[in-house]
Amino acid sequence: MSAETTSKSNIPVVAGAVLLPFILVTSLFSLWGFANDITNPMVAAFKNILLISNFESSLVQFAFYGGYCFMAIPAALFIKRFSYKSGILTGLTLYACGCLLFIPSGHAMAFWAFLGSYFIMTCGLSFLETSANPYILSMGDEATATRRLNFAQAFNPLGSLTGMFVAKEFILAKLNAASEEERRALQESDPAAFEKIQQSDLSIITGPYTVLGLVILGVLVIFALAKLPKVSGEGDRSLKTSATLGRLFRNKRYLEGVVAQAFYVGAQIMCWTFIIQYGVNELKLSKADAQGYNIIAMVIFVSSRFICTYLLKYFSPGKLLCGLAIGGALLTLGTIFIEGMLGLYCLIGVSACMSLMFPTIYGIALDGLGDDAKLGSAGLIMAIGGGCLMPPMQGWIMDQNIEILSSTRISFFLPFICFVVIAIYGLRTYLIHHEHGENALTTGR
After folding, report:
1. pLDDT digits (tens, 9 = 90+) for 173-225
2. In 10 A of CB 420, how many CB atoms?
3. Which residue from 143, 238, 310, 373 puts its CA 20 to 30 A from 9's CA?
């Protein structure tokens, strides 16, 4: 190791003075992880309950991640005007409201009402992520900022695992076992009985979200009473939006990071949302059993996140990002071209490669931005809009009749393209931005 790397490894990732606030803010990463991954399986659930197409059911992800995209800039301006704590409190309030709106949505039995609930919920999550990510980066030495964010993000999958388990055991396993074909036949022969099944299934979906809303209200009270430390730049509440945007648009490393993040989120959501469809369509698994493989993928993701966070002590973030993106692309090709369980194992293995990507891209893009990181963070949260647009595109491909390969397998060319884009960003970071970072931040080249 170089002397510089050795020096950085001696700097504490989290100082003792901010340990308790760090733990409190890090808990938020688990809370939005839970929301993300209890929601992914709902694409398959709504398709079966409401008898809609893959494209229509994937509008759940359009609404869910659309809230991130819509609210990111307003959230950043709000945080800049007030504080990180105010942003967190606002986010928790919207999060709880969105969850509790599932109650009237279920009674109305209206898909659009559920979509609206998801949208409001993720407007809150957008506030939380726009607040928590840069706040964690600011809680210590800049030299350890990326490692600190990776460590905090490592707890995101723990919430995701819990969300997946709840979706599997308390939603998918409890839904009426009738297939789409059986439901369509019942809809024609006995509409009242079909509507009763629909109402029962929608109430099963509503229950966990209602409990989640109540939990979030409790967390809101805790944060309202907690004392969170001020960090560098929080005292300056002037917006200076145009000047900040000008600097951000001149920073190529940042702009490329926003693009890479959009493609990463798209790849992650597609791989985790449609693993159920892959298991059902290609291997004739039940939805609950297919969700079990999704849980295995998340366990791999969690394990890999901690391993990769440790490896960042010794490897350039860009170099490691590039290598993992290449691995993700190769495994995605295996998902497409290899039949049977081995293809499913390739899809599960992609999660090991994805574990590092979000926080590393985030840390690289915001490195050295100072107070501009508040608005810069919003751009990276807006990039979560990749999860808004790409799943419906993949769902549309699944709805087509393709003879060369099954439409389910060929749809995974979309995440393959995403990994290629991420690999290019990692390579450019290692070869260009890493070597000339200070100049790039100063001149925009």
Report:
1. 899 888 888 888 988 898 899 999 999 999 999 999 999 999 999 999 999 98
2. 15
3. 373
The CATH number for 87's domain is 1.20.1250.20
Q: What is the pTM of this model?
A: 0.79
User: Is residue 5 in some structural domain?
Assistant: no
Picking from 32, 322, 8, the residue whose alpha carbon sits closest to that of residue 148 is 8
Residue 255 lies in a domain: yes
CA distance 3 to 127: 39
What crossing angle do the helices spanning 252-273 and 373-382 adopt, rounded to 10°?
40
pLDDT tens across 306-343, in order?
Answer: 788 777 777 888 888 999 999 999 999 999 999 889 99
How many domains are there within the chain? 1
Q: Flag whether 97 is in a domain.
A: yes
Residue 295 lies in a domain: yes
